[in-house]
Amino acid sequence: MVLLDKKLDVLYANQLATEWLKIAPGVNFGTTCFIELPENNECCIVYNGCRDDKRKEYLLYTISFCEQAKPLYLVLFVPKKEQSPVPVAEKRLSDLITDLAQRASATCTNVLITGETGTGKSRLARVIHNNSQRTGNPFITINCAAIPPTLLESELFGYEKGAFTGANKMGKIGLIEAGNYGTVFLDEISELPLTMQAKILYVIEEKKLMRIGSRKEMKMDIRFIAATNQDLEDMVQSGDFRKDLFYRLNIFPIKVPSLRQRKSDIPFLVNSFLKKVNEKYNENKIIDPGVMDIFLKYHWPGNIRELQNIVEQLVIVSNKKLITVQELPDHICQLEREPLKTQETGLCSYRDQKITAEREIILKALGENRSIRAAARQMGIGHSTLLRKIKIFNIDWRAICSK
User: Fold this and answer.
1) Are 185 and 176 in contact (CB under 8 A)?
2) CATH number for the 101-255 domain, one of 3.40.50.300, 1.20.140.10, 1.10.260.40, 2.40.160.40?
3) CATH tag, 260-334
4) Cα angle, residue 119 at apex, residues 106 and 136 outer, rounded to 5°
5) How far apart are CA 325 and CA 287, in angstroms?
6) Higher pLDDT pick, 327 / 333
7) What percent of the chain has pLDDT over 70?
């Protein structure tokens, strides 16, 4: 056992604590942290403000407070054999993504980042750029899904003066040209029309760009990072994405795992978001351990973005310092339970019937079409909306559409 204060001054330490401190310099005990010790040694988890001996996955920890003294952190060590193996494996998965990002930063090759919505693909792209040799040059983000098709070419490639009716008299620099000598991040690359895909491919292969209305090509030195939540290989097979462009972008692929695949990151992220939100709203709120338990069980279809929004919502809505389970949104707990039935009639509640009906509609639309896009058009909703609902209901759409 070792008793530490916030500055990591050792008040009492044994040999184990001394060895532990050697491999954990600069640890901030105000946040959750995971430390794996050398072989045949022990492990510990430090968690801010909580103690619960039943929570084996956190291994355990406490913080004692004194009004007239600075906070003291009591770290309890647990033998390694008692540790749950899941957090270690998941931490290694996160480390793998970090290692890939560092390796990508050391090169100038194109990168394709794939993963579900909200997993942090855009932030990862920024990290790769900031740690590369191009860090002092522009980082241009292009959301391919946000630009109307009629404006896409002029926004991406720019135009000369008088190129078309209504054009700026001085002409306009395109977003790709603005990223020359830097990095262009093509977010939602799967939304690009085939005609634009061909133009992007030309810039990548020939390293040249021509504005609309111009006859002069300009040399480009650009690193492209693309991101998508779609399966581009499936889109290539269906003819919705160019095979040659896919190969040009997929030189350095990085697949970002969903939050449910690396749940050991949840305590880290919650504390990080909580700290930022507390500072933003001048609050000092903390999370009850029961809330963290539910966070670890929830499947997070919106991934990190959803978790961040939930933490901010809880800080704003709660009128107490301690955020409890009772203040969680209904949908976080609802999807973890079996459909509830009323005691009198034995029938499912209105909410459960609504969820069941929505799932059946989605299954029917997918069964009648060969892709998510076609099913979304039939239902009259956006394909991204349908994709999100498919993840919420855990539907294997590939198996259904292939029938």
Assistant:
1) no
2) 3.40.50.300
3) 1.10.8.60
4) 35
5) 9
6) 327
7) 71
